Amino acid sequence: MVVDHRFDQLRQIRSGLAFLTYPLQRIADFPVTAAHWLQETTSSREQLLQENARLRAENLKAHGELQKLESLRAENLRLRNLLDASYKVGDRLLIAELSAVDLDPYRQQVVINKGASSGVFVGQAVLDANAVMGQVVQTTPFSATVLLITDPSHAIPVQVLRNGLRTIAVGSGRINELSLPYLPTNSDIRVGDKLVTSGLGGKFPPGYPVATVTRIDRSPDNAFARITATPTAHLDRSREVLLVWSVPSPPPSRQPAEARP
Questions:
Q1: pTM attached to this predicted model
Q2: Where does 105-182 show beta strands of DSSP type E?
Q3: I want to staple 114 with a disulfide (CB 3.0 to 4.6 A). Which of 39, 118, 172, 188 is the partner?
Q4: Taking Cα atoms as reference points, which of 172, 189, 156 lies closest to residue 230?
């Protein structure tokens, strides 16, 4: 020990012994090292699982908020279109929202959330942001039933916007189709003609868009042409509707009679 301490003569021997005993040290330290590695691995896995669960929850919440945002954006667009339509109509109006849809395949009806307490009455015209949808056929204090123009029992007086030709559009029972069964084969009507309310019958004010002619069949064997049209209103998609009151024109004012001499 004195020689090794004074003259450093055993360094090589000590290095050789350390090299030979290193595997024994690694084997002796293995339980402690393995325990530390296992603890760190388990802790890291738990942290990753917690982080994964948190991110998954945040992702789900973000997707839910995004869906709500899209719904609000679509609703905002529909209300903006209704507001634009109300300025175009110019009559007294009330905005209502659909609360139920009649699932009977033989009836084309919807229920709205405005009723007699809001002034809604039977026979009142109902529009969406684009055109005529139908008319009120039943009211309760807080709701009303609207018969759509495509119902087989519904008929609406219309006229061709291009030339003023008058006829009646009848519901076909299909949500995207109207029939014009009362026009002779020689009538001046074309595919693409716009149909608007004529105002006859007093149910619908004149000038509201109704449909566009899509097919004309002039068979020489029939006295009347077979004409179909597609409604302009989005009958299967609209959520908000307009209830219309026609504003009667004021009577002409009478001029005061001139004083007789």
A1: 0.63
A2: 109-112, 125-127, 132-139, 144-148, 155-160, 166-171, 178-180
A3: 118
A4: 172
